[in-house]
Amino acid sequence: MRDLTMQNVWCDCANTEEVIVGRKMNLKSERRGIHVDQSELLCKKGCGYYGNPAWQGFCSKCWREEYHKARQKQIQEDWELAERLQREEEEAYASSQSTQGAQSLTFSKFEEKKTNEKTRKVTTVKKFFTASSRAGAKKAEIQEAKAPSPAIHRQASIETDRVSKEFIEFIRTYQKPGQDIYKQCKLFLDTMSHKRDLSIEEQSECAQDFYQNVADRLQTRWKVPPEKVEKAMDEVEKYIMTRQYKYVFCPETTDDEKKDLAVQKRIRALHWVTPQMLCVPVSEEIPEVSDMVVKAITDIIEMDSKRVPRDKLACITKCSKHIFNAIKITKNEPASADDFLPTLIYICCAVAFIEKLDAQSLNLSQEDFDRFMTGQTSPKKQESDSFSPDVCLGVKQMCKSLDLLSQLNERQERIVSEAKKLEKDLIDWTDGITKEVEDIVEKYPLEIKPKSQALAAIDSENVENDKLPPPLQPQVYAG
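Structure for A20-type domain-containing protein, as requested:
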């Protein structure tokens, strides 16, 4: 929920950078890119402050006023609509009971079921837009209709368990203040579990109030030093946001997923946009720059897997550092805001730029822009050896990689063929050696004759001692 506040700060910084970009582009007509008028950045209500695209062009103060008025008006209109629909359904149901008595039993049951479902839907709408004086009854009905089963509620992910254990280990170092922090966090989570029907803005306000109360409680009651309070609040935010992640990021009550799909479709349609069209001062032909660009893209993609706002901001910070390093290596000088903004747009495809991108922004004719968007033609559909200088370096690298893969595939096929041939030669050689050995054994069989029993007595009378040489002739000694 602190993520929403930091997102607004990020949008304000991006708007300030767009003002600088707009001024520089007015002074340099030959430079192509984003053209932003000063009047378009101010609040639509004319208060003099800068507006924010996320707040429909209003500043933060005017947006709260307009949002409160619009919400009250919407609640009143929905309440009137719910009452009118309920009256119409009751009248239709009464008339159907009087005029359709002769119909079959199956159709009557179907009509009754359909009417009950519609009535239940109308009642649900009325419960959602009921005034705060009926909050108690509404809370009980919403819990009955929307509360998850105990088994699903108790189920926790591995990451949630890990963060919970780390949080408990951390607050143990604070002793009594830590016990108070844990008690307040459990109470807040239990309270928010009964406020699932609130909007994201209202849940964000509740979270901000909770953070402020905990910080004040640590400072005033427990006299905790400011540096330890800041560290404790970081851990509290990490624990709270990890537990509340599935309820505050893309919940079912919002159309965030539809917006994401629309932006994704728009980005895919703009796949033909090159860095030269955006005046991106980055040369991906330099290996170090290419590595920095890949790391920046990886950091942006990794941000979606983070649950804590602090971790998401860390991903954006790392991405920005990689962008600055890539620009510095390319230009051999420190990067400026005019260089950073178009590069960031090229890396992460800013939503506001993608939604408002037109042919004039890319210095193209409307006919060419329409053909590129519909997919009839594309500037990247060229041979790998005949690329123009304006073609994206990524396309060139892709074609080179495809050529290398083709060559690698051919080499692999040759290696496999040679390996099979070698295997066949080894089998033939083994069979030949075996056959030669069998032929030799068959031609020259080995016969082992039994040994003859020779006389072992050297001094026996049967042995011819005269035939022995003198040194070996036995001598008789008198005993």
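The first helix runs from residue 2 to 27.
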